[in-house]
# Entry
Amino acid sequence: MTLSHLRLRNVRLKKMPAASSKNRDGLSLMSLDPHDAHNDHSQTVPLQPLRPITTKTSRSSAVPCLPADPTDPVNVSNPTLPTSYDTNTAASLSDSTEVLIRTPRSSSSTSHDFHHTELNYEANTDPAADSRGLRIMSKAPLLIRSSPGFGTGSYGAAPVHPDTRDSDSDDDIGAPSSRRPSTDSYHSRRRHSIGAGRSGAFRTGTSSLNRRRKSQSEEIGGSTVAVGPEGRSSVSERPLINDLAADVKSDSSAVEDEDSSVDANEGVDNDPPDNSPYAQVRASVSPTDNTSLSINTPRMWILSTLFSILGSSTNLFFSLRYPSVSITPVIALLLVHPLGLLWDYILKRPDDPPEEFEDGVRIDRMRTPHGDNLEPAPLKERSRLGRLRLWLAQGNWNEKEHSCVYVSSNVSFGFAFATDVIVEQTQFYKQDVSIVYQLLLTLSTQILGYTFAGLARRFLVRPAGMIWPSTLMSAAMFTTLHKEENEPANGWRISRWRFFFIVWISGFVFYFLPGLLMPALSYFNVITWFAPDNVVVANLFGVVSGLGLFPLTFDWAQIAYIGSPLLTPFWAAMNVIGGLVIVMWIIAPIGYYCNLFYSSYMPILSASVFDNTGKIYDVSKILTSDFLFDREAYSKYSRVFLPITYVLSYGLQFAGLASLLTHTTCWHGKDIYVQWKRSLKEAEENNRPEYQPLESDTNGGVPPNGDLPSVTRSSSTFDNILSHEDVHNRLMRRYKDAPITWYLLTFVSMTAIGIFVVEYYPIHLPWYGLLLALGICAVLFIPIGIVMAVTNQHSSIYLICQLICGVVFPGRPVANMVFVTYGYISSAQGIKFAADLKLGHYMKIPPRLLFSVQMFATIVSSVTQILVLNWMFVNVPGICTPSAINGFTCPIARVHFNGSILWGVVGPAEFFGPNATYRPLVWCFLIGAIAPIPLWLYGRNKKSSIVRKINLPVLFGSLSWIPPATGLNFSVWAVVCYIFNYLIKNRASAWWAKYTMTLSAALDSGLAFGIVIVFFGFIYPGWMEGFSWWGTDVYRKGCDWQACSYNTVPNGSHFGPDTW
# Structure
């Protein structure tokens, strides 16, 4: 049907109060007027021929468009996003705008009713005009509706100021009338922040569409994606005029549908065409950006400082104690929310002047509802306390401020690795180190990671394929706490927040069983209960020193020990479990019972190293009084022997590091090269990427065939995975990026401090040793980051740093510790910072502000930990000794101290040199380097081949958790991942999308809170001393808990070589 066939009619829009204007989903239709963002206007769009519409409207019209020539049909804006305009406004307005419109009464009117506006249409009998009108209408902006979500933000595909016009009308529209003055455009980017934290997010979609969004998901490597374009795009495949026609109904019909519930798989599609192709991201992150929200406020900085100090000091305090407890950032995420709401409740007043925020920063200039500029309200009339209250009460608590406080907690809660070095130097090596040295070492090692994260942003943060699964739980939590929208999913109507609260309470209460009253539910080695003294049964089915072939436990701490299984893609879990089955469940038992490397004289799984009598190795026997290596004592005592799982773990780490480089080169090398060239080109041109419209032709962002961009399929080895950007990257381009010079200056300054530290103080590490450590980190950082961003599996370079330093600088244990700190911690901190950058990317935090938040929190936490550490040295009697009060024996520092002795004193040559026991493990480097090549050659042109899902760095590297992790931690983790990320994801995709990330966050935070309460409330005061029954003792009886070996050494003899 063409437009000329449409019947002519006059439409009079009925009066309706603004407060009652709702669309069929029960969500208010938002005004597109940039000066009237808080007014709630309803709008009815009838189906009529597109001829000039004669009406007189003011600039506060509800539906803006470009000024049109009086002789031309209505010129409707292109629904794309130009560079020079903010997407929160739909179009520039003009006094001569001709459009179907409803105008509000003047501000002086006491009524909230609308004026009646008579809209007269004329018949269109010109075929050319019909064709042109249809083409124009295909470029019409979609209705923008609000929902009680993230505030009045801009949607990824929301139509804004057009810079593309109909070719037939270009000659008729003069430049002066095509857009508003630049000052008006500037002011249109501002939004009032009153109620922003509760207001609705701008969404695009055709509200007429009530079609089924059956998200058929399938695993294609990196994530699960919806197949087919239907239900995944924000525009219909038909011209928009047909969508509008489908939505023409009476007001009474709209009211009837107002409160109707729609299934999560049905109804309006709120996804922009370039939304993330990854189901996990779409389920956790809103593709909107509310630029009116406050971020840079005293509330955010004070709460960030408070939690940085409390979290870092608490975790450092208990890191020196056994048993210990760790306060995770999830607890800060939960506790800070009620504090933020309480802050507003105490400091906010109804008569406070209105505020405006742009890019999170308050703007002093205010405007009337009509857009007129006003000077700031005089504050001198208020008292000093009143002015202080207004300063503290800036903005409203919202998800962006919440995100910044969480990021500051995330970078500060983990105790600095450098503090372990200080403990080892002062307590074990008996060196005197000054406060200045401690501060310089801690700050330089903590901050250097920013350099690698910042310089790798183009590779690890911006691409859509770098999803960072660990950040999705946090994003889901922000959605749960701040979003009020709730749509049924597979029949479940419970809200995310209520679901979270129920699971959180249940998890917290239930933890008292495995964590306190019946630990046997945690260490559920039930098969060994029937034969506690059988070594083979303990080896195979034990959960403490066994392989855990019976995957069952009732403790979420055991299930999520290596990371939450709900956040790991199923294909990645299959790589992990494949390596576990092949290496730990097949090769390890065969090697163990064949006495490979004398392993049958030791437990099959243990984190300790042993001497040639089967006892734990006593490092003190091979050291002089000056803590130097005593070769003669070593030759008289024993070589160092490792359990079979420890040996295989080292071999897998060697292979994993080598395969990491080869795998990254094969699958992502081209992407890295292209992105690197693009970075250099932008640096030479000094050209920052701008906020670009969607890639499409000039027909309103709709391809010529009317189809919309389909969802890109993703893969674990997806070709060009680093080159694809999504709506989140495009929305972030509105903000000024943190200049690369900031990160380069950070690198230069911190490296200079590091060189001063190693050269001036008695560390015995030359300056080029420090550069070597940073070089190792630089080479492996992007490959490690890619694997972590895609699979949520971290590849550690701790071991390789120890080995390289032991080879290059033998006999220097302190140098080995500092070398590992600068190499390994720069990598680990950089990966953490990159994950936080991605979280800021998802939550639309301005990069420069995020840089300041991260840097500030790191400095505060570093200084805090040094002060707390030195206070403990003075005030805790016998600290780091077996006789220390209340268990402050420094267990973690002692393990690292033993490692520095083994690799820094004994050296890698004694383990892997000629005639060494573990010399064959060196071949694992070659195996790991070659293994990815045939897989890549076979699978590079076979898009559907299962070979493309094999990720050797994940398969090899993930098992580095063993030890201390056991087979139980991996097997039960894989079972849970299979249930949720395969079965439920494919059979109840709406439920999975709505609840899975929230479930993970609830279980993790409930567990963390339960551990804190159990420890501080029952164990720490000593209330549980003497509490004993069958449930607390049964799992400790037998060989699993005692770590029995298959073979025993006769008294007075030893195993292994006689000389070494």
